[in-house]
Amino acid sequence: MEAGRVGRIKLGSQGLEVSAQGLGCMSMSGVYGLPKPEEDMIALIHHALNSGVTFLDTSDVYGPFTNEILLGKALEGGVRERVELATKFGFCSVDGKREIRGDPAYVRAACEASLTRLHMDCIDLYYQHRIDTRLPIEVTIGELKKLVEEGKIKHIGLSEASASTIRRAHAVHPITAVQLEWSLWSRDVEQEIIPTCRELGIGIVAYSPLARGFFSSGLKSIENLSHDDFRKLLPRYQPENMEHNKTIFESVNEMAKRKGCTPSQLALAWVHHQGNDVCPIPGTTKIENFNQNIGALSVKLTPGEMAELESFASEDIVKGDRSAHDIPTWKNSETPPLSSWKAA
């Protein structure tokens, strides 16, 4: 499928408009192997903007910090005005110990630090990356509300939060978007979280919509991973599970051939067909792959084709949990356990 210029959607009911597909920037600064050359990533970001993808997603923990610095450089010279920039806070390391923080002092300090790294006066969408279970969510949102009032952030978001946490947070200040893992083989969120977001008018941002590269090249994406690639820690990527899961990719690939598109475009199109309140943010470090991803917007799926796709990756077919949050261990976090997940 050829890629055209990307359209726009309203993300949530709080006035934020973004490109219909975003760009996840995490892998530009490591996590899936070594960081990529800065000049190449800046060129990719500028290419994305020129293609109509203006919704950029980062976090202070990517790098850590270096991904925000990269975005700050990429958005110099008047480029900032063309972008809806989302970043996150919450992961921190204290005396070598990893923990999640959502206390007011930390929220404010993290926001100020991100603004400095990004060379910005205001963040368009500021997420709590993970929920700090040591204190009421109302306390964290109360401080974020102050940052909105002070003009340092425009919109508040949550990432990997439970339905009850989303409700409580939204009661303090309207939540614009919830970020969650949603793909053809990660569908736990459809039970409670997606309906809650829709009831409250909260936009949905789907990260890892290509299953961290699995729907791009199947087993090849695993066999070529570098030793420092985070995906090597994930249960679904372990050899004993991947040998089974490769049949999912093979089925998707076969259907993609019939549709005249790539398997990644087909998997991404499935996410787009979930509704106009959903914005997937596939990440990439290559312009060629970026162009392929936005080509997914041109893939049309019938209800029958949607059902066929879902049959390939039903819950009883996929082997291995989607996350490995005990590697590394993050204390006091409202995150998915390694068993079946409904968000604590």
From TrEMBL:
Domain of life assignment: Eukaryota
Domain NADP-dependent oxidoreductase: 22-312
Organism: Carpinus fangiana
Keyword annotations: NADP, Oxidoreductase
Annotated segments matching region Disordered: 320-344
Protein name, entry field: NADP-dependent oxidoreductase domain-containing protein
Alphabetized GO MF terms: oxidoreductase activity
Entry's Gene Ontology cellular component terms: cytoplasm
Gene3D superfamilies: NADP-dependent oxidoreductase domain
One Pfam family this sequence matches: Aldo_ket_red
